[in-house]
Amino acid sequence: MKRSVTVTSGSPPKSLSINPLDRFLQLLMSIKIFRFVILTFWAFSFAIPLNLFMNFIGFIADILVPSRRAAGMNAVTSRAITNKLLTMTDHGQHHWITVNSTRYHYVQAGNASKFMLLLHGGASHWYGWWRQLDEFSDDYTVVAIDMKGFLGTDLKTSISDLHYERVSNDIHDIIASLAPPSGKVTLVGHDFGGVAAFNFATFYPFDIEKLVIINSFFPPQFYRQATLWQILLSSYMPFMAMPFMANWSFGRFNGAPLNTALISMLGAKEAPYFTAPNLQPGALRAGLNWYRSLLWDIIQGRQVEPMNVQTLILYGERDFAISPVTAYHNYEGDVIANHALTVRVIPKGGHFLHQMEPDATNLAIRQFLGYTATNFERSGANRT
Q1: What is the predicted pLDDT for the residue at 15?
Q2: φ/ψ of residue 323, rounded to 5
Q3: pTM for the model
Q4: How far is Cα 278 from Cα 131, in angstroms, rounded to an integer?
Q5: How many Cβ atoms sit within 10 Å of the Cβ of residue 376?
Q6: How far apart are CA 372 and CA 384, in angstroms?
């Protein structure tokens, strides 16, 4: 399989190799019973106690430092921002579609013959893609949906509703309803939206023109390429899966911890647009159910057929959740067959890469799609 790693500026990661200890770990985790034992031991002996301790310290700090509590958002403000997000037309038009008993909200920009579907990840919604809606709407009909449990889409979402096959079928039906006659889609996913995009590709590879994955990974492949460092980085996931505790952790003091975390990544101007919808009744629980479903997918470790899909992996070098080694090696083992798989590393980019480094992200996507346009030329990103 032809493979390339491209860095848009700066230096590449120090090493993309996997050491012998990690190889042994991967061997053990390739056996389901060992995988279950290792992940259970890791969750209950390290990951959950660590997060409980950190949240206890954070809670005490919230009580003692009024400015930390001040980052919260009252119900009136959060409702006003949420309503604004469902009516603003700066970046596209709002629509709703019912698919398999779920009412989805989406924003559409452009009316070209080619179709691009954008799938967001955790703590986000359609607005996380506004720069891509603006960027690609001249060349594509661009649709950014709110995933199950977010903003304008149904919030009553159980873990079983987020089973990878159900989500894939929903995406398929959305594409069938909204795509132009060609029926092909350029599918772009971030975080667990990238997981959903990958899962969709395993079921419907012939529906995809090209696949773009931003700071995500492929759960069935995760155990085959797990490293000790990646498991450490993923220590938040078992805690996110804990009923009630994770909801309280993010939602206490009117969402102050969530808003503070988002401000650190997205800035004070943009963060409230993502904090507010998550404070609506039932929203945190619905969003966290994605992580609960994702953990189960990792433990199951299902086998998949190689996907014949041209794929671009975009990775922000400063991502707190995914290591460079995982970003590269997670797609080994004939996950992508008979095509060139490009992994592009964006230095200085964090987890919300398409929001934190939009010029570099859009440039990389345009290069992958084979476009040269005016806005491509004036992009501030460095060229390869």
Answers
A1: 55
A2: -85, 160
A3: 0.91
A4: 21
A5: 16
A6: 14
